[in-house]
Structure formats: structure tokens, C-alpha cells
Fold these 3 entries.
Entry 1:
Amino acid sequence: MKAAVDGQLSEDQIASFHERGYIVVDFSLDQEMLDQIVEKVYPLYDEAYHQNPQAPARVQDAWKTIDEVRRLATDSRIAVALEQLLKRKPLPFQTLNFPIGTRQHTHSDSVHFSTIPKGFMAGVWVALEDIDENNGPLSYYPGSHKLREYSMQDFNIEPGVGNYQEYEECIQQLVDDEGLKPELGLLKKGEALIWHANLLHGGAAQEDLSRTRHSQVTHFYFEGCQYYTPMESTEDKPRFRHPYWIPNTPDFKLPEDRPFPIRVLIRVLNRLGIRGAS
């Protein structure tokens, strides 16, 4: 694999991303920083995981308290690569850290995160240790990003988290109908997999239950769009999002949490399609 010097991708890498929906890139990330992420995030996993290391576990937005997570999410080389791929400035808005494979069913991130205009969201998955066939690699379907962005309504499912399992079942049927074939994300420590928002993917089975599979995901929107959550939207009433962009420097101040009644009011206004509630 060709390393991306200062984040600059080759023409072949860019073409491969648009053809296959993902690329694996070596950004020469700081190995010591990756080790620090594993060490510092570990205590934040739920007690259930610490009692049973095979229990599903993740930490969302650890960048708020662990600077190494923030530094990885805002790495300038990754930002340069993303801007080459989608021709807009990338805006990181969420991190997820995992100690083991997710074993998630196949899905598209576009049901969780979408944009107006469409197509301006991407994920970057960084291996914090070597990933092979036995410790729960990613599973993805090359080229599936070229399919339409399927909403829950496209499958005659009412939008909402409570119906997500039904959506997953429909996506699996779609995979079968299209005859799609999966590949596994076998990455070395420090390598990054960049994927298109509409790429169908999930988590493969963890064959060796004694092992970990530490990783960090950063989700990016891109500049100049409106952002919304399709799973909580209808065609005429998008559930708009107003992300807080992960800052490039450690001297940031998080916005104060709004009182519970105000958060509820904003959610109601968004569901009514009243924009500008933030």
C-alpha cells in the first residue's frame, strides 16, 4: 500500500474510492499516540464490558476528555485526503472508540447521517492494533455505495430507532437480492479505512474471543451542507442536526448543555420541520 505523504492521495487512490466506496491509507500515524488512546479510553468502557470482555462496548465522543482521541480525529493529513475525495472541507463531528469488534449487522451510515445535498458524509476507521480475520474485522461490500440511499420509508418502515432491526433485515435482503459479496477490512496498526457514507458495511464475527480489536471511528460531514438524521425524519420533515465540530486545538470550551425541557422543545421543532432550532 502506498503511504499518503502529508495526506496527498494518488489519482489511483481517488479513483478507487469512487469506484469501490472505500480506500485503505497509511498516514504514518504516531504509534505512541495510538497506544495512548487505547490506554486512556479503556477505563471509560461500560462496567458490563469490564466484567465480560466480549460484551458489546463503545465510547462516543471521547475526544471531549482525551486529547489523543481529538488529535487523531483532526489529523491534518486525514483532512487533506478527505478534501481531495469530496472536494469540500471535512468537518469532524463524532468519534467512536471500540475495544472489540462490533458484530453489527450490515447497514449504511446514510440512514444515520445524511446531508442536503446528498453524499457529503464519510467515515474514517483507524486500526489501533493489527486487525486480521480472527479478531472481528470490518465487513463491507465494495461498490454498494452506488446503490440509492435507502431510507426506512423506502422499505415501508416507520422512521425511528425502535424499527431499526427491521431496517437491518431489509438491508440484508437487499444484499442477497443484489448478489453483493463482502470483503474484510484487514488492516495493520495505524492504517485507516475511509468509506463513503452509503457503503454497506458491518462487523464480522470475532473468531478468537480472547483477543481485542481496538479501533477509532471518526465521522465527518463536509462544509456547505445542511445535516440531518434520516432515521428520525420523514420526507417532508427532516430531523436537522446542528453538529459541534471537533476543534483543532486543545483549548476549547464545550457549549453548555441545555436544560432538559429546552432540548425536548428543540427536538419537537426539528421534527415539525422548523429549521434554525439550535
Entry 2:
Amino acid sequence: MIQIDRSNTATVGLELFPVAERHQDALIESIIQEQIPSWTANPYFQSASVHRSLDGLRVFTYSQWKPKFDPRSLTRPAIFSEFYPPDSLLLEVVASRPLSSEVEIVTGDRMTHLAEFRMIPSNQPEMVKRTSAELDRAMSSPGLISATFHRSLDGTRMFNYGQWESKEAFENILKQAGFNPDKPYWDGLARNEFHLYNVVHTQTTA
């Protein structure tokens, strides 16, 4: 079990891998067997989790490093030359609401919703304000366990790492005003894309 550091004493590394459906399992195995062991050897490493998309076309890793560290500076194992290169970003938490006291990343049946918002850097401060303002209303949705918004340090993106009890619970929020893709709260500020995942592996320093 991993706790997301919502105080930003750690750096968040996000790696988004596109993958052919037939290669998703092999990519996940390479991350678990090759990438994460190389990370754990680094003194700045705190935790990592691996996420498998339900559509079979994506994998992402969410890692935390403390004190501040850029994991993109590390050498990637040679086996990753067999896969599409990931989109690698550094993030920090800007707003977070859990039902309990902490945001926990655990393997199991819960759904992880990763929403990506792309924008010009001048729009990111307003996106931070809007997402923070919408959090309390979002948390009233049945089945939402936590929502944690991150901004990319380059100013071009924001991500919502949301956790849900089920796929059906997530789909219900899309019917609500402001969260409906036809007229969303981010209209005019960002382009949004989202996908659903399961957590398939977690690793900590312990």
C-alpha cells in the first residue's frame, strides 16, 4: 500500500506508455522486473505503482521521490527499446480530497481514473483554481474514494488521479453538470482525455 504525498515534499514522476494490446502484459512485466528494481536502488526512491488500462492500450507508472529528484535522469533498462517510449513528466499535487485521512494506492478491484488536461502554460493557474473549486462537489458523488489533482512542472498539463469503487460509479459523474464532457468546467481552458485503470503492482522502500 502506498500513500500519495499530498504535501509535496516528494517529487511525482508520471510515465505514460502507449502500447499495443497484445504487448501490454509484456510491458507491465518489464516495468515490474526491470524498471522498478533499478529505481529501488536509488536513495531518492520512495514508491512506485503500475497501472493497466482497461482498454489494453495504455500503462502508466506513478512514482514518488524524496527529497526532490528527477527520475528522468536515470538510465532506462535496455529492454524498453522494444516498446514505444513513454511520455515522462514531473508533477506536484495542487488539490486533493480523500474520503479517509490519506490517499492510498492499492492493488485490487477499485477503478483508477486518470484524466489528462492539456493546456497552454498561461491557462494552468486558472485550471488549478477551477479544479480546486470543483473538488468538494465531486466528492459528493457516490463511489468516489479520492480525487487528487496534479500540475505538470512545465505548465502544459494537469492530471486527476481519481479512485472509484466501480466503473459504474465513475460513469455516473459524467452525467452531472460541469463534469459532463459536453459542457465541462474546464471548457475554454484545456483539452481533456481520460481512461480507466487497475493498479497491478505497488512497491515502496519498506
Entry 3:
Amino acid sequence: MHGPTEGVSEETDEANSAVKIVGGNVFVELDPDHPGFKDEGYRSRRNEIAKIAMEWNDMSMEERRNTKIPHAPYSEDEDAVWAAIMERIAPVHENYACKQYLDNAKKLGLPNDRIPQLQEVSETLQHMTGFRQEPVGGLVHPKTFHTALANKVFLSTQYIRHSSRPFYTPEPDVVHELVGHTAMLGVPEWAELNILFGEADMRTKSEAAITRLGSIYWYVLEFGACREKGIIKSVGPGLLSSFGEMEHACTGGEGCGNNEACVCDPKIQYLTPNFEEMETRPYDVTKYQPVLYVWDSFEEMYENTKDFITKWGTEKDPRKEVHQ
């Protein structure tokens, strides 16, 4: 979830950027350890991209539906970063991505040699399941993110990681959004679950319950996994957007290579899905996930999650008191 603590990457860290407005100008404040901190060209492009999102957020819903998303100003180096990632991740998808992802990634047809613009991807996605993607400047509160989902809108960042470290990002970037989330949002069942999470969030009032809901989103719709013919496959976009995380998740930690940049625990624990347990299980966004809930099939994941989240906070919910 694009909540205040999310980060997804090959080597992941807490998000270390913030969008601010000073004197009417939009700028992205990067921490000194961000790879792009000293790159004025990169920072200028990040500011332009953040401005797109800020101006978009000032529009009414009707204006957004009738306005094309402005193009983000990507450089040749940034297109090369995208190309390098796509080349590296393609064979990993073939080995470890679920069938639903592979089928819809082909339909989506993301380019391999350049970063696609959010408008073109959103138009294709909308024809698939009715979902649209709209720009956001960075991490948002879970309530904001989920409310958008209920309206078939997925809030997406447009910036990409710095070219000096193409396989590392300290924050969810356009690779995570498009390579991870978009193809899955083209799957009707997956799109439906995202809408249901949004509707459940809109029924939820307390911050404690929103946190519980966010944890389930994390373990199912960010880092979910299922079996296909007994083999563990990646379902969640947090896995699907990271070749290192996929290899780690689907091989029990043995496939990540344990190289110098590795941030994983080679031991990974596969658990039988349990929603009540997911609600309060903590997760560390700075490392590869050491715990995954693995479903026996994509269909089981869909049916069980749909049943659970549809009841969330309603009279049919046996745990209504902690879900409101």
C-alpha cells in the first residue's frame, strides 16, 4: 500500500523524499543519502514531475476524467534505466510470476526501451477493467489511497530511480507502479479486490482498524503468493516489480544470489493464509520479506479475500468491533 511507511525495491529503504511547496514553487526534498541528491538535472525533473501531481490533485473529479495526464520529462539515461530493468526482470517473470500476471502483461504491452507515460498506460488499463491511473507526488495516507481504489483509481508515482543505481530505489517509483501494479489491475478479480479494499476502508473509522486493513493489503495485495502445480509463484506487485524480491520469495531465499547488495534473510517462512494473523503481523520495509502467506491457488486467494473483505466492519463480520 502507498501508506506512510511503504518502500519496495531490489534493495529497499524507507522512502526518503517529500514534496513541498515553497514560495509557490514545487520541489522534492531528498535526503542526503538519496542516489540523486547531488544530481541537479535529476532533481529538476523530479520537481517537474511533482508539480504535475500537485496540479492534478487541485482538479475536480470531472476535470480529471476529461484531462490527459501531462507527460513526465524523462531523460535518455532514465529510459536506459527502465530498459535495463525490463531486460533483467523479464526472465524472472517467466520463472516466478503467476499466470494471471504473465497473461495480462502481454495484453498491457509495456515498452521495453523507454518509460511509458502514465496517460498511455492508464488508457490501456481502463479498456481492460475500468481502472484508471492518476499521478501522485509520493507516499500518501492509506485512507487517501484506498478511497481512490473504491473509485477505480490507482494513484501512481511517475518518477524513476536514479540512473547511478538502476537496481535500487529508496521509494516506490514508476517501475513499481507500472511493472508491478498495472498488469495485475488488468486482471478482473484483482481489480475487484482492490475496489473492495477501498470500500472497506471507507467503512473504517479508527486509525487502528485502518492499520489492520493496511496490513492485510500488504500481505495479500502487495506481497501475496500462490502455488501453481505445487510451485510458488508471485502474485503481489511488491514481488512482481523486483527481480531480487521475486527470486528470494519463490526460492525460499536461495535464488537471490546473496550478493553484496543483498538485504534478505536467506531463510524465508511460508505460512498458511490467516487474515486475523495478518492484521497484526509487523513487517519491515527495509528488507526482503522474510514471511509470505502462500495460497494453494490464485482462485483460493481471490475467493477467500473477497469473502473476508466484503464483510469487513459490517454486521456479517465476526470481528466487527476491531474493524470499525
